[in-house]
Amino acid sequence: MRAEHATERGLPRAVWALGLTSLFMDTSSELIHGLLPVFLVVTLGASATALGVIEGIAEATAQITRVFSGWLSDALGRRKALTVAGYGLAATTKPLFPLANSIGLVLVARFLDRIGKGIRGAPRDALVADLAPAEKRGEAFGLRQSLDTIGATLGPAAAIALMYLFHDDIRTVLWFAVIPAVLAVVVLVLGVKEPKHAQARAQVPLHAKEIGQLPSAYWLVIVAGTVFTLARFSEAFLVIRARDGGLALAWAPAVIAVMSLVYAASAYPAGWLQDRMGARPLLLSGLVALIAADVLLAFGQTLLAVFVGICLWGLHMGLTQGVLAALIAETAPIRLRGTAFGLFGLITGLAALLASIIAGLLWDRIGASATFLAGAAFAAAAFAAFLLVRHAPTGLAGSQRPTRPI
To answer: What is the DSSP string of 254-322?
Structure first.
């Protein structure tokens, strides 16, 4: 373990800084996201299909952009610069949301914001992998994911308080998202130093044929993760489900807050467990939680039932998202790590776009229950897909760490 980046027992300080950066930016993003579905549907008159298209395009844009930023971070060996650029772009888009007076402008704002997310995503994850000791990599990804999700809890909580303070004036509340976004960029710039060994591995140019060097275990994770993504459409549908169930407008951000609180509480323990027992039990448990969540959200008749489903949704995210990131880091060659994260984002981003469009169409044409039952069906298919990768090795490429079963 490098002394300049870590204490004897703890994780590197730069990993904590990256986690705090994620915390601040997610506070900003989820303050907006907790209100945006009702802002679109109630204030601007958008349909569920339009909501699905906007959210699908936004999330797909973020994931597709990752492939290019990941490749560039491998080619240049400058992961921090790209990470700063991504967080910086996201911060500059936050004022567009309170200024939006049409569905089209909201789409533009979400599109630019998610480009920023896409630019930073793969280089940041690769930077975590570069900074963390091999034996603590699952823990490092779990920590970053937990801090990120704490921000996703604080943002909606702040939105609720501000909605009461400003008497449901959504536009005024959305302006407060600018503050934590700026703090995120400051923490990143001052708190993270790029490791020299990552810069030394840079090779320009990287060629497309090098994608063929990615091992079969990586592609198995890609396939299973893609099916998983089809089962997990935008959380915006959770907000309008609760709204349809009788949740007051000012309390709409509570949906994201509750989901994120459970997500944050489970992500770090999941990473810690992955280092000790492998990923497969966590992934399968997460899919069971998602199926149960979808069933409750499809048939729940009370707000209590809806919120239990939302909690289970957050649990499945905590059990799986940091684990998937660690699996990508472990199955990819070190010098192609950024590209591997980016390619995963490209493929799952297209799946996310399809999932949200399907969810919106089912909601408008059949009803909310059809949307969530379709999600449960895809989750069951993902469960079967992860059973197929049970024997795939997930040891770190180029390390002495022994492989273990997924």
So the answer is: HHHHHHHHHHHHHHHHHHHHHHHH-SHHHHHHHHHHHHHHHHHHHH--SHHHHHHHHHHHHHHHHHHHH
